[in-house]
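Hello K.,

You asked for the raw outputs rather than the summary table, so here they are, unedited. I folded two proteins back to back in the same session to keep the settings identical. This is the first:
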Amino acid sequence: MTKVRGLREDIQLGLALKQHMEQWLLTTYQTTTQQITTIGLLSIKQQKQDKIN
């Protein structure tokens, strides 16, 4: 019985870790994408400003 309970707990911990890592990856991806977009927009703005000057 102890081995089964231990195995269940290991599986639950593994699933919780998997969910945590998936959420971390998603958040990291979204943050990186947002930063790349911001850099791109700033670059375009700078290029337009350079043309004016």
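The second followed immediately with the same parameters:
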Amino acid sequence: MRLLFILATTLGLTACASVPHADEARRACATLVAQKTNAEVRIESVYALSTTELAVTAYPKLAGSQAIQCRYDTGSDSARLN
């Protein structure tokens, strides 16, 4: 079971619900990326970097789009692009 968890984590399949403030981070980063790209956004993963900062990987739904990294600060409830 542990091997399956490690594999899932490596592939970015970790459940976002296990990270506190993941829903807020997903919404804030999806909104920010959508405003920047004028496209729908798919959130790939949410990882805790510290107790107050989350990393979010987002993909605009555009042909050939690459991942966009976003950081979410839980203290200020704000998102920024890397």
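The helical segments are 2-10, 22-37.

Happy to rerun anything if the numbers look odd on your end.

Regards,
P.
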